[in-house]
């Protein structure tokens, strides 16, 4: 592929991952427990383990979290 | 099971599994690297490591892929399936190490950012033999990453089994990409027939075992479905599925009813029917056993009460249940799948029936 | 009547105690034995494959990067098409009288020796050797001009127009910075190195006799531009004027590169 396409892809991937980290960190600390009661008292090792997936799937994870908040009320 | 997640639900079997896996990987890496460096006085550690890690990851991916069909063909392989996700994650980690070393070796220290160089250094997208094989490896590694990153039961529970399963079926796409990555990459330079031969043999094993297992399974499904609509066998909507004597005690027969596989269990003079598909990873419940009063999945030991299809508390998994009737020693199942966890009265066999239909000898 | 599923009967002989539940402490002994045997067999196959893969690769070329040997070199610098040091005091024996210069990483040495064309210089660097040929990875900050007159670099003598077939490789990796530093797996790196200023060589595989290398340059005697990058690491035919300069061959590309 040509260089401008490659640069755009890498930039896009960087932005996506950056946003992913911003969403995933609070998600694994707090959101996961709201979305799934099984994660409420889970140890830090579990939170670390789901972090890469939360970064990769952050739009989905953000939607789950918003839905859980709406369900529970503010 | 999904009650209070842990990072890894360690137990003795998993430790054994992982210990053997780690020892196997270490032995492979040492043998390859040692063999390559000792027989070539100018070989470099960097190239040896890249090839060592890459071949080890691909070999392990073959193991990951053949364990499934092997366990379907012969249940004695089931223990290999038990901790397969650690095989998968190890495969990804080896692939990641291979990719990272290759990225640094071939693209770092130049006049472009590493990843930009990786994506753009070979522009021959239109060629077959000169195709940028690195892109195939990158795509495969992305798939393996997504699978490894979502391998925890947390993701299975929250993505839902169908999405999770579909995502993990992408392993076949990753496998195809990796075969092309090797064929259009290193095999363009390393032309010893044993290397291409090994790749062909590996791919043939994977494809062959899948076809064989699939064929064996379909051979079981087809006659059942073909005979289903016969109205003479319908009885108030109930369908005769087998004789009581054909079900061994504390085990099941898998029958196809209304296009779905149903596990009909016999235990303590009672008969219950549940969906054959485990909530956890779609394991075949009907190949499991009643252990401690619960249907126990042969893959990971997930358990369900036969009457309700629900996991015993505190676990929350549920599978669909079916109504069952006994007429003499005929076992009848209603093809309507009740919502997961719906209680069904088990059919009870009286002493007379039991006497005339002793449980099938398991050897038969 | 639906048939019992055939897989529900596999294997035909299975004792009650043979059901494997992973979270139980002990696997049933018969299962454990079977799995032990299967895993041992798998381990043997894996070990065999590791050795097969290690031994079935092509022999490594006689190329070497002495990355830990910082040596001092003296000679006359020629900047174009790529920095070359015409060595002042060749050691006795078959030692080369010239060496191409490169910088660390995937870079040419232009920036390290700029402004010193035709001067006598001393520098420190790490030798890269292949089949009697020498290249020096210059250690930045060690290049110093020497006082007094410099010997002149040998003149280029034209050998006429020629057509050659071979593979365009980056001089640094091919001569030993990477082993192997040629062919398809190395293609991306070759493009990166040449685009960074490493001298491109045409590796010509002669019909009879050993392969030899020709330094590639533009018709005006300068370095080639990025137009050659899509042609690296694959079989090509090039046309141009071949020159002999001392013991080295240089090809001034004239005309398009053809893929074979």
Verbal overview:
In chain A, α1 (3-35) crosses α2 and α1 (3-35) runs parallel beside α3 (58-72). The N and C termini of chain A lie far apart (48 Å). With 74 residues, chain A is mainly alpha-helical. Chain A is elongated, with a radius of gyration of 15 Å. Chain A is built from 3 helices and no strands. The mean pLDDT of chain A is 94. With 364 residues, chain B is an alpha+beta fold. Helix content of chain B is 49%, strand content 13%. Chain B has helices at 12-38, 45-73, 78-82, 84-107, 114-120, 133-149, 153-159, 161-169, 171-183, 193-227, 351-356, and strands spanning 234-235, 238-243, 251-257, 260-267, 270-275, 289-291, 294-296, 303-304, 321-322, 324-327, 330-333, 347-348. In chain B, the strands form 3 sheets. In chain B, strands 3, 4, 5, 9 and 12 form a 5-stranded antiparallel sheet that branches. A 4-stranded antiparallel sheet of chain B has the order 1-2-11-10, with no helix packed on it. With 260 residues, chain C is of the alpha+beta class. Chain C has 4 helices and 14 strands. In chain C, strands 2-3-4-7-6 form a 5-stranded mixed barrel. In chain C, β12 (235-245) and β13 (248-253) form a beta hairpin. The longest helix of chain C has 28 residues, at 29-56. The radius of gyration of chain C is 29 Å and the shape is elongated. Chain C starts with 28 loop residues before the first helix and ends with a strand. Classes of the chains: A mainly alpha (74), B alpha+beta (364), C alpha+beta (260).
């Amino acid at each position: 592929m040509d260089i401008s396409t490659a640069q755009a892809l890498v930039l896009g991937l960087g932005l996506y991952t950056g946003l992913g980290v911003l969403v995933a960190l609070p998600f694994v600390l707090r959101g996961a427990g709201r979305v799934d009661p099984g994660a409420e008292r889970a140890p830090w090792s579990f939170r670390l383990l789901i972090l890469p997936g939360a970064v990769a799937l952050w739009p989905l994870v953000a939607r789950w979290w918003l839905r859980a908040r709406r369900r529970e009320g503010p | 099971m999904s009650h209070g997640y842990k990072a890894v639900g360690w137990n003795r079997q998993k430790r054994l599994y992982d210990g053997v896996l780690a020892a196997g990987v270490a032995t492979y890496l040492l043998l390859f690297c040692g063999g390559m460096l000792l027989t070539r006085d100018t070989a470099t550690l960097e190239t040896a490591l890249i090839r060592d890690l890459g071949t080890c990851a691909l070999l392990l991916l073959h193991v990951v892929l053949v364990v499934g069909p092997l366990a379907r063909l012969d249940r004695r392989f089931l223990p290999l399936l038990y901790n397969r996700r650690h095989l998968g994650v190890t495969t990804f980690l080896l692939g990641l190490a291979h990719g990272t070393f290759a990225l640094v070796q071939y693209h770092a220290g130049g006049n472009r950012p590493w990843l930009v160089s990786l994506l753009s250094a070979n522009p021959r997208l239109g060629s077959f033999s000169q195709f940028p094989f690195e892109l195939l490896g990158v795509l495969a590694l992305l798939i393996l990453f997504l699978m490894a990153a979502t391998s925890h039961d947390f993701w299975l529970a929250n993505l839902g089994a169908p999405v999770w399963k579909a995502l993990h079926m992408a392993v076949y796409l990753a496998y195809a990409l990796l075969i092309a990555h090797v064929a259009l990459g290193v095999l363009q330079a390393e032309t010893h027939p044993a290397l291409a031969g090994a790749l062909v043999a590996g791919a043939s094993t994977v494809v062959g075992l899948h076809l064989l297992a699939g064929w064996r399974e379909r051979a079981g499904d087809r006659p059942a479905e073909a005979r289903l609509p016969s109205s003479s066998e319908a009885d108030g909507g109930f369908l005769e599925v087998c004789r009581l004597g054909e079900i061994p005690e504390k085990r099941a027969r898998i029958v196809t009813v209304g296009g779905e596989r149903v596990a009909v269990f016999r235990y303590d003079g009672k008969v219950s029917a549940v969906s054959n598909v485990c909530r956890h990873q779609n394991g075949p419940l009907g190949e499991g056993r009643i252990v401690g009063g619960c249907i126990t999945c042969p893959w990971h030991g997930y358990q369900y009460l036969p009457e309700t299809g629900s996991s015993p508390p505190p676990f929350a998994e549920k599978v669909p249940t079916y109504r069952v009737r006994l007429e003499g020693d005929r076992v009848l199942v209603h093809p309507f799948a009740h919502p997961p966890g719906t209680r069904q009265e088990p059919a009870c066999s009286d002493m007379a029936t039991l006497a005339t239909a002793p449980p099938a000898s398991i050897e038969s | 009547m639906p048939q019992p599923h055939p897989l529900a009967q596999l294997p035909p002989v299975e004792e009650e105690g043979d059901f494997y539940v992973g979270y139980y402490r002990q696997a049933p002994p018969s299962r454990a034995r079977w799995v032990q045997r299967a895993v041992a067999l798998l381990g043997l196959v894996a070990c065999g494959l590791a050795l097969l893969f290690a031994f079935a690769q092509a022999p490594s070329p006689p190329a070497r990067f002495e990355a830990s040997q910082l040596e001092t070199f003296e000679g006359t610098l020629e900047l174009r098409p790529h920095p070359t040091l015409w060595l002042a005091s060749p050691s006795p024996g078959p030692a080369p009288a010239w060496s191409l210069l490169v910088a660390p990483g995937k870079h040419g040495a232009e920036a390290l020796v700029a402004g010193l064309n035709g001067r006598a210089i001393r520098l420190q660097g790490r030798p890269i050797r292949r089949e009697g040929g020498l290249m020096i990875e210059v250690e930045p900050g060690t290049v110093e001009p020497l006082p007094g007159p410099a010997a002149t670099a040998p003149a280029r003598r034209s050998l006429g127009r020629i057509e050659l077939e071979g593979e365009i490789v980056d001089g640094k990796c091919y001569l030993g910075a990477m082993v192997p530093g040629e062919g398809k797996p190395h293609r991306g790196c070759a493009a990166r190195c040449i685009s960074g200023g490493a001298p491109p060589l045409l590796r010509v595989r002669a019909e009879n006799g050993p392969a030899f290398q020709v330094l590639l340059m533009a018709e005006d005697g300068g370095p080639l531009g990025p137009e050659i990058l899509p042609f690296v690491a694959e079989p090509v035919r090039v046309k141009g004027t071949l020159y002999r300069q001392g013991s080295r061959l240089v090809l001034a590309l004239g005309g398009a590169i053809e893929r074979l």
